[in-house]
Design a protein that fits this description.
Elements lengths: L14 H22 L7 E5 L5 H10 L4 E6 L13 E5 L11 E7 L8 H10 L1 E13 L9 H16 L10 H7 L3 E13 L3 H20 L4 H11 L5 E13 L3
Parallel strand pairs: 1-2, 1-4, 2-3, 4-5
Antiparallel strand pairs: 5-7, 6-7
Helix pairs in contact: 1-6, 4-7, 6-7
Bound molecules: S-adenosylmethionine.
S-adenosylmethionine binds next to helix 1.
Protein name: Methyltransferase type 12 domain-containing protein
InterPro entries: Methyltransf_12, SAM-dependent_MTases_sf
Keywords: Transferase
């Protein structure tokens, strides 16, 4: 995979804002789940696909001067502005580049669904965990989005999901993480899903409208969503009287046997 293969590249002028909305929406949940693992001073952590680095920054503050965090991404432009003495920024492709090893915690959020080699990548991430250490993978599962009272929004999501499947994105990978980790020998596997119900016009809705804006051209080109349906659905994403489920974010944690 190269930077140009990634469908939501950091070079898009909307991407910095979109990632910031993603951090706002998901960080409290992610931080809670990481804290549940017992994260503390001195831990050595790796975050891959770190995006704008809000989780890596928080990890660096939590592990303190005796700990260390590596924030890795295929494109580090939003990470380079982070500054912490115990935080390293690394540009790497998680599919093929060395990741290091003996981490107390390896974590990744919202990256595997984009990567066709996702099952192999899970094994690579697990291999980088030290015996007794933890992995935390947070990925989407879109099962809730079709459960909406709006036929327009349902048809819109159907078209969106068909477009995604057509370009190799697995928006249902959330349910596949635990079985994969189990197969490769990880222990104490725990899975929790959180689904946000968004209000039209809210920050969560805007995260989606920015995502759709970045992808408008290729989605419409597939022909499953007409421009009329696009406008009808997007008007609801902007309407404060509209509430609907977004995708479920599935956090899977596991420990490597000591
Ligand atoms: C949807 S963003 C999620 C960012 C961040 N983890 C978050 O949840 O806010 C996916 C991130 O994965 C990175 N990425 C995509 N493919 C990658 C690869 N093969 N190796 C490393 N990072 C990759 C992207 O550059 C992007 O920052």
């Amino acid at each position: 995979m190269s930077m140009t293969d990634y469908i939501l590249p950091h070079s898009d002028p909307l991407e910095d804002d979109r990632l910031m909305l993603m951090s706002k929406m998901l960080d409290p949940y992610t931080r809670f789940r990481i804290s549940q693992l017992g994260l503390g001073a001195g831990w050595k952590c790796l975050e891959v696909g770190a995006g704008n680095g809000t989780i890596s920054q928080w990890l660096a503050d939590r592990v303190g001067p005796t700990g260390h965090v590596t924030a890795a991404d295929i494109d580090t432009r939003f990470l380079d502005r982070l500054a912490r003495p115990n935080l390293d920024i690394r540009q790497l492709d998680v599919v093929k580049d060395p990741l290091g090893d003996a981490y107390d915690l390896v974590c990744a959020r919202a990256i595997l669904h984009h990567i066709p080699e996702r099952l192999d990548v899970m094994a690579r991430l697990a291999a980088a965990v030290k015996p007794g250490g933890f992995i935390l993978l947070e990925e989407p599962d879109f099962h809730p989005v079709l459960d909406t009272d709006s036929p327009a929004v349902r048809d819109f999501w159907r078209g969106f999901l068909a477009w995604a499947a057509n370009c190799g994105i697995d928006y249902f990978v959330g349910r596949r993480v635990a079985p994969t980790l189990s197969k490769i020998g990880m222990a104490d596997i725990d899975v929790h899903g959180e689904t946000i119900m968004f209000q039209g016009g809210s920050a969560s809705a805007r995260y989606w409208t920015l995502t759709f804006a970045e992808l408008r051209e290729p989605i419409l080109a597939l022909g499953l969503i007409t421009p009329t349906l696009w406008n009808e659905a997007l008007a609801l994403f902007d309407n404060p009287e509209f509430w609907s489920w977004q995708n479920c974010f599935v956090v899977t944690t596991a420990r490597k046997p000591a």
